[in-house]
Amino acid sequence: MSDPSLVDLTLFLVTQYNSASYTFHLGLILKSSGHFATIPTKIVGPMKIIGPVLQEEIRVPLATFETPLWPSTNRGAAVSRLTSGIKVVVVDDRMTRSVLVEGPDAEYVSQVVGALKGYRHELSQVVTKTSRFAHLENWHVQLVGNLLYIRFEMTTGDAAGHNMTTKAADALLDWIIERFPKLQYVSISGNYCTDKKASAVNGILGRGKYVIAEMTIPRVLCQKNLKTTPEQMVNLNLKKNLIGSILAGGVRAANAHFANVLLGIYLATGQDAANIIEGSQGIVHAEVRNNDLYFSVTLPNVIVGTVGNGKNLPFVLDNLKLLGCDKERKAGANGRRLAVIIGAAVLCGELSLLAAQTNPGELMQSHLRLERLEHEGSKEIS
Amino acid sequence: MSDPSLVDLTLFLVTQYNSASYTFHLGLILKSSGHFATIPTKIVGPMKIIGPVLQEEIRVPLATFETPLWPSTNRGAAVSRLTSGIKVVVVDDRMTRSVLVEGPDAEYVSQVVGALKGYRHELSQVVTKTSRFAHLENWHVQLVGNLLYIRFEMTTGDAAGHNMTTKAADALLDWIIERFPKLQYVSISGNYCTDKKASAVNGILGRGKYVIAEMTIPRVLCQKNLKTTPEQMVNLNLKKNLIGSILAGGVRAANAHFANVLLGIYLATGQDAANIIEGSQGIVHAEVRNNDLYFSVTLPNVIVGTVGNGKNLPFVLDNLKLLGCDKERKAGANGRRLAVIIGAAVLCGELSLLAAQTNPGELMQSHLRLERLEHEGSKEIS
Amino acid sequence: MSDPSLVDLTLFLVTQYNSASYTFHLGLILKSSGHFATIPTKIVGPMKIIGPVLQEEIRVPLATFETPLWPSTNRGAAVSRLTSGIKVVVVDDRMTRSVLVEGPDAEYVSQVVGALKGYRHELSQVVTKTSRFAHLENWHVQLVGNLLYIRFEMTTGDAAGHNMTTKAADALLDWIIERFPKLQYVSISGNYCTDKKASAVNGILGRGKYVIAEMTIPRVLCQKNLKTTPEQMVNLNLKKNLIGSILAGGVRAANAHFANVLLGIYLATGQDAANIIEGSQGIVHAEVRNNDLYFSVTLPNVIVGTVGNGKNLPFVLDNLKLLGCDKERKAGANGRRLAVIIGAAVLCGELSLLAAQTNPGELMQSHLRLERLEHEGSKEIS
Amino acid sequence: MSDPSLVDLTLFLVTQYNSASYTFHLGLILKSSGHFATIPTKIVGPMKIIGPVLQEEIRVPLATFETPLWPSTNRGAAVSRLTSGIKVVVVDDRMTRSVLVEGPDAEYVSQVVGALKGYRHELSQVVTKTSRFAHLENWHVQLVGNLLYIRFEMTTGDAAGHNMTTKAADALLDWIIERFPKLQYVSISGNYCTDKKASAVNGILGRGKYVIAEMTIPRVLCQKNLKTTPEQMVNLNLKKNLIGSILAGGVRAANAHFANVLLGIYLATGQDAANIIEGSQGIVHAEVRNNDLYFSVTLPNVIVGTVGNGKNLPFVLDNLKLLGCDKERKAGANGRRLAVIIGAAVLCGELSLLAAQTNPGELMQSHLRLERLEHEGSKEIS
Fold first, then answer.
1. Which H or E run contains A221?
2. What is the ipTM, given to two decimal places?
3. Do residues B60 and B72 touch, judged by C-beta distance below 8 A?
């Protein structure tokens, strides 16, 4: 049963008694405007995922207005089932918040930076007191004149960790200003975190889960299922995703449309979907190996959780259950499982779109066919 | 009445006859999983918008899992009603798609670049044939060795224009390859467009609607309604949005959380919400003027439309109607109206969050209060 | 004879008369401190350049403290002589300066932007009056709130054009402020030019000469002269220059060491060598074609001239003469010739270094050998 | 006595015996072309520097073709002597080299990353064996598919450290590949270092000396010596250096012309001047404080040394002596002293140019005056 509070239902029953019989007229008015946005969602897959985190075939919900995303991602998923599968690893996992203070001059703030190194234990305790799931991993500083930006990195269990790190950063800020009274508060967030903005810092220093998904696609499958060749895929990735993105002044964003798949899953699983901004900054690496296609997607900033804001909505609970991310597990394990699935889905979507773009004829025909179906078929072309 | 096809309803009636009386047990199972994602939506405002495009008080729907976004944006809207209002202009409007071809060498492709300048009329006609709403405005090229990226810019009426430009680019590609037979197709999209990826090109060359919203907030309102001062706001914007973003290796992204408000409206109005990536790349400029606060948000890449994919969903139609973007107007006018409203809403959200961050006490108290309400209150802190 | 004013010479003659014979002791003290910096310079090459701008074998002076740059570039030059040569084109040529003004609000400055389009003729005349070599090509604007940045693009004959565009921008600024009296001066340079700073704007909109150099190297030459294969070169370029630079948060900078060669020639020819910053933002594109190596360097921002500051120094005149850039030619032709030569030299340097890096053994041996020679041999490794 | 090997001297003596008298005709041909580039150099200053590293008045040599740089920097230096001085700190100091290897898949390379953490001692020893001045400080990794980039950070004594880190990286690479035999060499440099290329990584992770210079300029000095006000300076810095650079798609480059002063000193002191590319990526922060001007320059990537390539040239030795960077000191102290002086000089140059740009009249007059002197006076305007 879904959450009734989100739906403005008027249910009415008109009972007519006519001689010896009853007639029931049931009516339902479902009024949504101003109360919820209903994003069309389909389940695609299953995708074949092979370790090390999980070895399963997984079906994935995608919420999107851009319906061609479904068959496109599905094509990639179908290929995965014909290969040995998609191997996905999570190589890092942390959330960040940067506070901003200022001192009398650069010398003073640099001394603070030095002194803080001696307080690792104290700072860790400050964090732990704010949440049993928050653990301080490290911090990184930047100085500009007398300004001091401190970017705290924490693990946050199964939560994406926006709030947990903010709360911890608040406490850290208090502690630091008390300890170094010449410092003054400037901001709880100094934009060096950085949240939901295109930057380089998150890719370099880490924010969210660092996910890599790889698949080897036999040449024959490339030809039969993707209507392309390993060479064409490598060539397109080189000239479009790498060189094209470099020309665009892109920042660590060498892919075709990671964002589309990310948005679809983020919405379906109650994530703070504005984090697709960092999420979209990832890289496709493809090679011809032993005559087959090696295809990988690297996503350094997958910011997702399985608890927290939005996660108690009925459709989110359903989707997390479908993904197997609702089990009792060690803290953080559900979140990483979700990240693994996201990596696999992004790979499927990217593989399919790139394959389509290697072949002008296919694209135009698909375009026309979908046009006839009153869909605009290549909307997901990025 | 909303779209029933999106909702999987099981309505059941259990009728019990018990001696002389009937008891009706009415039940409803609303099953959403795999069919739609129901994003909580509230209408905030009204915001007071003063020309030149529109002079109205507008209420704005925001779909989000991050519910603190509503009161935050509302606070900015309330301030707007106490001032002379938010002035919003749209200074540019175009959509882009970049095709990618290659020739035998750089000399040849540079000759093609030169020759194309003589075919402006022909290229315009090619575009017009693909849609009566598409008009070729200009194109821009990049060469890398023998690779040629051509970024076509078009107006696309009230559509955001992803598909319209893709269809036109397909036709342009055909025309060009036919005319210059030594060119070979590489990709319908060369990532120099660039769609849904963090880059610099869109801000510099334009993609979507270039929106600027400005408001002057009297000092007394800053103090009373925003619990801050003009000087504190200017100071925070300088050190967080400008310097902090520069430190982060940010790319034309000098703001706190444009993305949150953009996502909220994009989802509520059926936009391709992955375009918040470009949308988030904007700049806040604030100054103390005549003792009051001048506050502006500049969003060079608002990619929205009022027709196209997603726009026929019932809740979207309702929301576009609420925003007054459903009227019979000159092609493009509804889209620009929507962009104006978005600019105003982003200003309200940014103003409120920055004001909160100038005051450490307020933030922490708000945090704790919202915690008690089982919300994580500063989630929107960016 | 070089410029004596730069050299502090003390020449002394000690004449000893000893019985029937004279002995002359000639001495020379050449004191430079505080008067000039003497950068070691060698002439490398010749490089074989094949049209369309010039078809010659050219010897190129490189001034550098990093002496391994000479043999490295020389190796590339030697390869060029064994192939059909380096084909170099200049596909664009313009210099820029951005002025910064502000108006009362965004609406006003956007109206100014619109109005300026009607004054193309007047603005061109303003430019022409400041120098007979300056011609206004175009301009590009950016608006932030009420701020207006206008980036003027001009051709500047054989000068790099820093001063010519500044002088013209000064005059344009006067004209504009007089015409639109609500505008106020903020800066003669708004950093949107942008000069000597890492950015994306110059690559996208153009600044300096846009140079592409290409060479096809037969497989056998790769093996014999470069100790590598076409496949190894393509592989290294992909993983180092493209992906590695993307990871670094690089901005249109996908190469190994364009900067080293640029600096060497810029210093040898009296250029404003701080413009290597923009110059270094270029891209290497390499492919295996017909079993051979296609290798290209694309440099969108080569900012050089053959007249202006520094060009009258004796060694510069000598070097420009050596390069054939001192002839009577149509305005701009000497500058473009220099740019062509620079493109070829950068290709030679890049080719050689990348080849060395494909082979770990060679590098280490070269390192050790040069160490024995008391040079640090791989200093140019970038 | 300067290095005679750099100068191609033909000294000739024509002795004529004419009846009872000898006439000596002494001639000197100093031929430079192809042997050295003679960059005009002047000593500017002194600048008043006040601890913590040094408290002295220092005169600084600037080698440049752009002669207006001298009076401009001198004006800043003169101001420094009238204030309490320029306070300069070095908050970090390290050099980097990134190696690139690849494994069979992402899982394997992520295991290598984990395992390496257990070999800190061994890796440190590998480094130390290559040079007694090299010490491994830390390393940072990036993974893309099965590619592994390892960026090693080292201190390198008084050398800038390009070669020292390369040599150490060579040894580390050998060690790692031997230990993890499934890894394969790709490149001794993976461009994640990154050397002489515009990127974000160096500012975020550190490369070279991180220098901050600050000065407070009393209002009356702003007015009298710089013909400006604190408010005008803050305003210009905001709109030009910060917002203007953001618009340009600038990468951590929020200044007017750091590059000019850096180049001047780098050439005068034998540095690898192509490192002005990273060097130019710095930030100006200015504020009105107590009615006076607080002005600071932050340069995170000053890559300089006092030993190594180029440092034995006579003019370099002279200049290093002038700067007091030739003393017997603890390893690294001379290099940091040089970095401090560079920070102060960059501040002087930036202060002066920005002040000039606040005043349109002054600029134009200076321009015209210098024009008359047949110099193009505002060449350094950036």
1. helix A219-226
2. 0.90
3. no
DSSP assigned state of C254: B
What pLDDT, in 10s, does the model give residues D85-123?
999 999 999 999 999 999 999 999 999 999 999 999 999
Nearest to D256 by CA among D226, D284, D298, D231: D284
On the CB side of A129, how many CA atoms lie within 13 Å of its CA? 11
Q: Is the pLDDT of residue D176 over 80?
A: yes
Tokens of A140: 């990184």
The whole-number pLDDT of residue C361 equals 58
A204 interaction partners in chain D (CB closer than 8 Å): 140, 142, 200-201, 204-205
Of B144, B212, B294, the CB nearest to C285: B144
Strands (E) across chain C are located at 8-18, 21-31, 36-52, 55-63, 86-102, 135-144, 147-155, 184-187, 208-217, 283-289, 292-302
Probe site for chain D from C33, C143, C170, C184 (most D CB atoms < 10 A): C33
Q: Which two tokens stand for residue D345?
A: 């000089």
Q: Is A204 on the interface with C (CB under 8 A)?
A: yes
Encoded tokens for D49:
């520097």
In DSSP terms, D208 is beta-bridged to: D94
For residue A119, give the nearest of A184, A192, A175 by alpha carbon: A175
Task: Quote the radius of gyration of chain C (alpha carbons, Å).
Answer: 24
Write the single-letter amino acid at C265: I
Instruction: List, for residues C72-131, the tens digit of each pLDDT value.
Output: 999 999 999 999 999 999 999 999 999 999 999 999 999 999 999 999 999 999 999 999
* C178 carries an active-site annotation: no
Give the number of other CB atoms < 10 A from CB of residue C121.
9
Tokens of B91: 């200074």
List D17's β-bridge partners, or say none: D22
Q: Which chains touch B (3 or more CB pairs under 8 A)?
A: A, C, D
Q: The pTM is what?
A: 0.92
Q: What is the pLDDT of residue A19?
A: 58
Distance CA B97, CA B193 (A): 5
Token output for A362: 């296919």
Residue A132 token pair:
């049993």
C165 touches C110 (CB < 8 A): no
Q: Which residue in the list C92, C231, C272, C326 is annotated as catalytic?
A: C272
- Read off the amino acid at residue D287: E
Rounded distance between C-alpha atoms, residue C190 and residue D241, angstroms: 8
Q: Of D325, D69, D81, nearest to D221 (Cα)? A: D81
**Overall average pLDDT of the C261-284 stretch:** 98
Tell whether the model's pLDDT for residue C375 goes beyond 90.
Answer: no
B282 in reach of chain D (CB within 8 A): no
Contact (Cβ atoms closer than 8 angstroms) between residue B338 and residue B319: no
Angle at CA B172, nearest 5°, toward A282 and B277?
25
DSSP tag of C34 = T
Which residues share a beta bridge with C24? Answer: C15
Which chain C residues have a beta carbon less than 8 Å from that of B296? 106, 144-146
Positive or negative, the Cα torsion across D39, D43, D47, D51?
positive
The answer to whether D56 and D340 are in contact (CB under 8 A) is no
On the question of a cis peptide bond just before residue D314, with omega within 30 degrees of 0, the verdict is no
Tell how strand D283-289 and strand C135-144 pair up: unpaired
C122 touches chain B (CB under 8 A): no
On the 0-12 / 13-18 / 19+ scale of CB atoms within 10 A, B39 is buried
Residues 6+ apart with CB under 8 A from D91: A106, A110, A113, A143, D210, D211, D212
Strands (E), chain D: 8-18, 21-31, 36-52, 55-63, 86-102, 135-144, 147-155, 184-187, 208-217, 283-289, 292-302
CB A264 within 8 A of CB A64: yes
Mean pLDDT lowest for which of C34-43, C249-258, D167-176? C34-43
| Contact status of D11 with chain B (Cβ, < 8 Å) | no
